Amino acid sequence: MEKDYLLETQKLAKVFKKDYAVNELDISIPRNHIYGLLGANGAGKSTTLKMLTGLLKPTSGKINFDGHTWTRKDLRNIGALIEQPPIYGNLTAEENLKVHTTLLGLPNKRIKEVLKIVDLTDTGKKEAKNFSMGMKQRLGIATAILNHPKLLILDEPTNGLDPIGIQDLRKLIKSFPEEGMTVILSSHILAEVEQIVDYVGIMSHGILGYQGKVNPGEDLEELFMSVAEKTTRGRRIAR
């Protein structure tokens, strides 16, 4: 039986001043699973995610989403948290989400739904600038899932979190496939990813060196280092 992929790329590339930030990337994201996009800083992960969310235009290649060629209309079915959460510090959690439901034309009842999902229902009148880092991350995720996305993209979501914040966020992310969401999670922290993801893609120097299902007991660090060594030898410059 053919696997059901929500998103696939074909030879996706992004070139900056003749350097390949992303080099002919072919990734396949199975529907309703968590896919870990791994790589050291500068491997091309964020550039890839920015192309998938329309923040960057690909130099070449193709993106297929939910059975058709990706267009900007597909952004209504994609939620993303890339870099810093889009938070207004002088507003409460509920007020922050109200801004986005108004922009998206969503019903106000959705605000309480997502606050419950991310466990921020008890923040009351507390302004977001006084939230912990973990609370800010969860509020950013709440914003990203307001529109019931089919695909949720999270770029290094545990950065700066303490162990409790990481544990809470891990539990939250693992719940999303049950809500009908496919998740792409980028990270450079191998120990964290292997506790969350079902599938993994490993990037180095803009190249996808490995892609596959995560098997119990597999040594991701050894695999990661092997891919990094192989792709370092395979780098090329755009002509």
UniProtKB/TrEMBL annotation:
Question: Which species is this UniProt entry from?
Answer: Clostridium ljungdahlii (strain ATCC 55383 / DSM 13528 / PETC)
Domain ABC transporter span(s) in chain numbering: 7-230
- Protein known as: ABC transporter ATP-binding protein YxlF
Q: Which residues form a coiled coil?
A: none
According to the UniProt entry, its GO molecular function terms are: ATP binding; ATP hydrolysis activity
Q: Is Transport a UniProt keyword of this protein? A: yes
Pfam families xrefs: ABC_tran
What domain of life does the UniProt record list for this protein's source? Bacteria
Query: What protein family is recorded?
Result: Belongs to the ABC transporter superfamily.
Recite the lineage of the species. Answer: Bacteria, Bacillati, Bacillota, Clostridia, Eubacteriales
UniProt-listed SUPFAM superfamilies = P-loop containing nucleoside triphosphate hydrolases
Q: Does the keyword Hydrolase apply?
A: yes
Q: What class of enzyme is it?
A: hydrolase
User: What does the record give as EC number?
Assistant: 3.6.3.-
Swiss-Prot/TrEMBL keywords: ATP-binding, Hydrolase, Nucleotide-binding, Transport
Q: Which PANTHER family does the record associate with it?
A: ABC TRANSPORTER, ATP-BINDING PROTEIN
